[in-house]
Amino acid sequence: MSITLDRRRFMAAAGALAALHVAPAFARGDAQSAPPLVDAGWLKPRLGSKEFRIINLTAPDLYRQAHLPGAVFSDFGQWRVEKNGVPAMLPDVPHMEKLLGGLGVTREHHVILVPAGFSAGDVGVAARAFWTLKTLGHARVSILDGGIRGWAADRGNPLQNTPVRPEPATYKADYTDKWLADAALVRKVVRSGDVPLVDNRTYDEFVGMTPAGGSVLRSGTLPNAVLVPQHWFIDPRTGRFLPPEKIAAIHRQMGAKDEGEAITFCNTGHRAALGWFARHVLLGWPSRMYDGSLAEWTRLKPPQDYPVVRKVKL
User: Fold this and answer.
1) Which of 84, 106, 158, 215 has the lowest tally of Cβ within 10 angstroms?
2) Residue at 311 is within a domain
3) For 68-105, what is each residue's pLDDT tens digit?
């Protein structure tokens, strides 16, 4: 059901909710080649097509207030699981097949991922889902640039508040690890220094000023890592990605150049997914993402085999 919405009130409420829930590698072009980023102008005339499955990755309260017509809600917490005491890891294939099948997704669908769009953290949720779908071998995946925030800002874009109950489908993955870095690979890279390591967290976390605890048990970063904060890629005024040339300039000026393959990481593979998406998908610079990131690295033993560099010590 389409609704008449007080969009100003909705945007204010959505922004408050987002604050509480912070949490060419692929073909570009038309629907067949699945551009990695789509905007409202591209998506609006395609609403209602059986070719697409729109997955809403906002907070549940925001979904209940308003969402794109036909969008199904998915809890981001189900896209990551604890493994061997490490939080927020990539689930096993059967878990993801069941999750996606329950959302009515098949391998033939073009999946549109809709974040809230109020922060880089919101967009990182969609980027992590994008990376997961690509790791499952899904061909056509796009992120709605600007998310629900950008969509709702235009009064001409329809919204609904009736929950969508998808008809279950059978999803069969074709798993690939070509964009995945595990601890063994990262340990090899740390020893050799052959592959750039890109830390997509904040400066405080990078230099070790943020106290250890929670997901990460030792403060600091990986040896020889370069800092490129993921929130720099998103325009805070719109929740949309910066133009690729600006994202490239950020990498180069921070010392994360485009030569060879890089590995992005953060604490739990959320912000690193946004870093991977910006670097690998938008810029076409070959990259992998360290799924376990520092949450896993700082739990591995013996610690001297998995070093962390703390640049500021008090």
Assistant:
1) 84
2) no
3) 999 999 999 999 999 999 999 999 999 999 999 999 99
Residue 202 and residue 212: Cα distance in Å, rounded?
14
214 and 102, same domain (yes or no) = no
> pLDDT tier at 22 (50, 70, 90 boundaries)?
very low
Helix H segments across the chain?
7-20, 40-43, 60-65, 93-102, 120-135, 147-152, 183-192, 203-207, 244-253, 271-276, 293-297
Same domain, 137 and 190: no
Same domain, 20 and 144: yes
Range of the domain at 123: 7-152
Quickly state the pLDDT bin for 257 (edges 50, 70, 90): confident
Are 104 and 167 within 8 A, CB to CB? yes
pLDDT at 12: 54
Q: Which residues contact 176 (CB under 8 A, 6 or more apart)?
A: 134, 135, 137
Q: How many domains does the chain have?
A: 2
CATH code, domain carrying 121: 3.40.250.10
- Residue 3, C-beta contacts closer than 8 angstroms, at least 6 positions apart: 66, 159, 160, 161
Is residue 93 assigned to a domain?
Answer: yes
CB atoms within 10 A of CB 183: 17
Q: Confidence band (pLDDT; 50, 70, 90) for 176?
A: very high
Residue pair 69/2 in contact by the 8 Å Cβ criterion: yes
| 266 belongs to a structural domain | yes
User: What pTM value is reported for the model?
Assistant: 0.91
Determine phi and psi for 241, rounding to 5 degrees.
Answer: -65, 145
Q: How far is CA 30 from the centre of its chain?
A: 22
43 and 133 fall within a common domain: yes
In a domain, 202, yes or no: yes
| Rounded Cα gap, residues 234 and 303, in angstroms | 35
Distance between CA atoms of 257 and 188, rounded to whole angstroms?
Answer: 20
Q: State whether residue 288 is helix, strand or coil.
A: strand
